Amino acid sequence: MNFTRWSARLPGTQRRAAARTEQTASPDRRGEGSVPAARAEQLTGETPPVPPVDELRVREVLDRVPSLVALVHGPDHRIAYVNDAYTTAFGVRPLGERAREALPELDALGLFPLLDQVQRSGKPRTVKSRKAPDGRCYTFTCTPVAQGDGKGGTDGRGVLVFATDVTDHAEAAERLRASERRQRETAVTLQRSLLPQELEQPDDLRIAATYHPGGTEAAVGGDWYDVITLGGGRTALVIGDVMGRGVRAAAVMGQLRTAVRAYARLDLPPHEVLQLLDGLAAEIDANQIATCAYAVHDPNEGKLVYASAGHLPILVRDENGTVLRADEPTGPPLGTGGWMHASGSIPLSPGSTAVLYTDGLVERRDADLDEGIAALERALAGATGTPQVVCDRLVRSAGVTPDHDDDVAVLVLQHPARTGPESELFRNAALELLGGVEAAPRARAFASGVLTSWRFPTDLHDLGVLATSELVANSLQHGTPPMRLRLRRTDRRLIIEVTDGDDHLPRRRRAEPGDESGRGIAIVATIASSWGCRRTPGGGKAVWCEFALPRARTT
Fold first, then answer.
1. Are 311 and 239 in contact (CB under 8 A)?
2. 272 phi and psi, to 5 degrees?
């Protein structure tokens, strides 16, 4: 756009240009009897002359400035001048006195070192929003000035102190900061409310988790973790991260976490759970993706069976201090679709510690992601203690601070190696069910002997034998070899499990008076604290039930 041509068409532009031309040609045509300047401008279109800045009296200007002005001179900063605004704010100040004694307000604000610096360097300095003793906030600019000796030279340097009242701005800024703090607290509260309020503590694992919101803005993240007791001594562990920040990411996270808990109740293999989550994530929001790792721990197998949807690898430190990385298999993030996830496994023997985490713990903008994971491995190799202690040490070693730019979620689980009296509270016994119908009385006798050796009370002993009889009978009637009975006790419960080679899952149903079968599962469900069934990875199924131990047994 041609601004010259455009401005020439503005009203009055041509008149002002002509006036300036006429003024240049004839600076002063006024004589006696001329009209006042304002009237003359109206009649003739002429602009009155503007006095040069050099002719203005500096003191008169400074006296009328609404900002605070003071001039100090010499190395001991003696007062040379204060304007009316300064006097109004802090009272009359005697000229010629040392500023340190005569201007205590500057001392309270800590400005004297700044005055010394300005006088030495000859360069202006500014400090913003300092609160003065009168309760007002000022921004101070200290400018060096050379003062003359009256003979054309200079007799030293002075400093002009110019203070602008910014109280309204400071109060508005503080209100804004307070509002941001409240919004952030609300956002963090929302995020934490979507996470487990209290972690489930399985019998065979010790678990701790930590969450650190990232940044200082009021945007919630999508990191989450969960611990789900599956029954039969098995535990599911989940960690995930919804890409992006904000309420939308948190909402997607909440839906995925709820869905994981629902799918976990089906006791499916990890890769099937992720397959279901993948479809759900696409339905929730096709543009929102998330990473997730889902793992299942069975104390009888001594390993973690897991599946990963684009998530970072699980790390496990064994009882010897060696750190293993569960790299494969890893599929694409949830919500991408079109991928068949697969399950893998990593050893988790007694004495081992496993860590599940989100990328905020290891990802840095100035370093490669693999370097961050390698640093975490080194930190885990030297991190000992309880799961909570390990959590804190890993977060601290990663340099996570309150102003960290990404959310961090860490889940630590330990499979403790129990020795001494504690080991007596965790026992296992198993029997292969060979042969035909004669396997049932053999299973009952085995269960009775084991429960007696574990010193269970009579009523619990009898209930355990009855449940064993019904589960074995159900397997003999509806299942196929190989069949196996497993008894397990922890410090809190008795677990009875029967596996066979048929993958048809039993269900509880109401038996009619004339039916000769169909009551076994109903009996087990009635006498046990809980029961369930699942398909096993190699084919077949497992049917289990649990009995809670008396409280005295846990002391």
1. yes
2. -75, -35
Q: Which residues contact 421 (CB under 8 A, 6 or more apart)?
A: none
Query: For the chain, what is the mean pLDDT?
Result: 83
Length of the chain: 555
Least confident piece of the model among 63-67, 228-232, 271-275, 389-393: 63-67
The CA-atom distances, in angstroms, between 338 and each of 312, 331, 333 are 21, 10, 11
pLDDT band with cut points at 50, 70 and 90 for residue 303: very high
What's the N-to-C CA distance of the chain in angstroms? 87
Phi and psi torsions of 345, nearest 5°: -145, 155
Tokens of 214: 């990232």
CB 233 within 8 A of CB 298: yes
Q: Is 463 helix (H, G, I), strand (E, B) or coil?
A: helix
Are 207 and 177 contacting, i.e. CB atoms less than 8 angstroms apart? no
* CB neighbour list of residue 131: distance below 8 Å, 6 or more residues apart: 109, 137, 170
Measuring CA to CA, which residue among 323, 382, 315 is closest to residue 355?
315
Instruction: Dump pLDDT digits (tens) for 99-138.
Output: 888 889 888 888 989 999 998 888 999 998 888 888 889 9
